[in-house]
Amino acid sequence: MTLEEKLKEWHRCNTKRLEHTREAKSLQSRCEQLELDFEAELKRSKRSSIVRCGFTLCWTKGRASVAWAEEYLKAFGPEKVTKLKAQAAAAASKVLSIEAPKSVG
Asked: For residue 81, what are the contacts with CB-CB under 8 A and spacing of at least 6?
């Protein structure tokens, strides 16, 4: 393969990659909008799990996040950070989980 052929192939691949990246971002944004609707539906039900149109919507435990831990570690040491992370973990977030019915491909 000549250098010119490689450059042309790179250009085709890169153009296609950028198109797919834009499309993926658009799809991700739409999924996030829909997930907000699903979260609202689950909250309205006041249950931890519901089935709608064969899809199961439920809350699962999210990961506890301690954004300030790095700075705190520098200031107070690892023992104090470990203790505070354990306390913060008790307040783990809830994350929407969607399970499709077996018939949906």
From this structure: 69, 72, 73
User: What confidence tens digit (pLDDT) does each residue in 79-89 have?
Assistant: 887 777 777 66
Verdict on whether the full-model pTM lies above 0.70: no
* Phi–psi pair at 21, nearest 5 degrees: -65, -45
At 62, the amino acid letter reads: G
Q: How many residues does the structure list for the chain? A: 105
**C-alpha to C-alpha distance for 81 and 78, rounded to whole angstroms:** 5
20-69 pLDDT tens trace: 999 999 999 999 999 999 999 999 999 999 999 999 999 998 766 666 66
CA 59 – CA 98 distance, rounded (Å): 9
Structural contact between residues 57 and 49, judged by C-beta atoms closer than 8 angstroms:
yes
- For residue 35, give the amino acid letter: E
